[in-house]
Description:
By secondary structure, the protein is mainly beta. It contains 1 helix and 19 strands. The strands form 5 sheets. Strands 4-5-6-7 form a 4-stranded antiparallel β-sheet. Strands 8-9-10-11 form a 4-stranded antiparallel β-sheet, with no helix packed on it. The termini are far apart. Mean pLDDT is 91; it is low at 1-17.
Amino acid sequence: MKTILLFSFCCSLFLNVQAQNLQSFKGANRKYGYKNSKGDTVIQAQYDIAYKFSEGLAAVELDNQCGYIDPTGKLVIPYRFGSAGNFSQGFASVELNGKWGFINKAGKNVIPYQYEMAGEFHEGLAAVVLQNKYGFINKAGKIIIPCKYDYVFDFVAGKAAVELGKRKFYIGKTGSKIK
């Protein structure tokens, strides 16, 4: 059992390292694919849009639907989303039927589609929009910082810049104002 787990971990690590070296390119057919750091085509130009790899997966768009591929080009999360974000801390924000929620790397919806917009997780929190106001949720989908701000930036080093009216200031992970 330990051998299988170790092999699985090593394969995952290899694919993640390989994915970090892939860059999207636009082919002569006006579609996008991926090349490695040597400039060799690894995934043929076949997508309408090809986003960067994050945590071993990349969002790709084909016929106005987004899904996710692995570094070999295998579709691992089927095309079904209107928009798709990068994976961050094991989650990706995705839009389905006009609402945003979050999926895990298996493509399972883990935070309901209920937001007008949703960002990436940083330091365990992700920005979301409800009724045109920004706030933050945790990985369980619980609103930690109420949606009351006009704009927010991601958390870095335990604080996030926010805008409320004409005021700009920083808040901590509980929502309290800090300097």
